[in-house]
Amino acid sequence: MFCSTNNPAIKRFNRRFMVAMALYIAIMLLSVWAFKIYHPSGGIAYILAVLPSLPILGMLAMVGMYLTEEKDEFLRNAQIQALIWGMGATLAVTTVWGCLEDFAHVRHMDLFLVYPMYWFFVGVSTVLVKLRYK
């Protein structure tokens, strides 16, 4: 979304997002630490492996909450465009990379990179959408 604004929907989104990101970092550090020190297996390993993804799922829900709370139709539409462009770029990169993996035997892309890649493309798209409407 946008960094400094008086828009209450964006302020709520930013606040929720920062809390979720802090939880993600804390849970990720805890999981990495637990795997390095204790080498868990079985059910505990699965739980520790899945825990960091829960705040990410929350962040995805927060985007939906923002879109429903946003009263300005122009801002909502611009954000939806950026989200769709980000999704398209992520799908394009991962599809091309998948073909490269299958046919050219390039290094496997770690799937945890898809989420940050998506938000990178959303960020680029947000700038481009804003420039388009200036």
Classify the secondary structure makeup into a structural class. mainly alpha
When the domains are counted, the total is: 2
Report the portion of residues in β strands.
Answer: under 5%
Q: Outline, from the CA principal axes?
A: flat
The level of helicity is over 70%
Number of helices: 5
Largest sheet: none
Number of strands: 0
Q: Provide the gyration radius in Å.
A: 18 Å
Order of helices and strands: HHHHH
Report, as a whole number of angstroms, the end-to-end distance: 17 Å
Average the pLDDT over all residues and give the rounded result. 95
- Uncertain ranges: none
Question: Can you lay out the helices and strands and say which pair or pack?
Answer:
Elements: H1 8-38, H2 42-50, H3 53-69, H4 73-104, H5 114-132
Question: What do you see in this structure?
Answer:
This protein is mainly α and 134 residues long. The protein folds into two domains: 1-70; 72-134. It is 81% helix and 0% strand. The chain has five helices and no strands. Helix 1 (8-38) packs antiparallel against helix 3 (53-69). It is flat.
Short account of what is shown:
The protein has 134 residues and is an all-alpha fold. It folds into two domains: 70 residues; 63 residues. The protein contains five helices and no strands.
Short descriptors:
single chain; 134 residues; mainly alpha; 5 helices
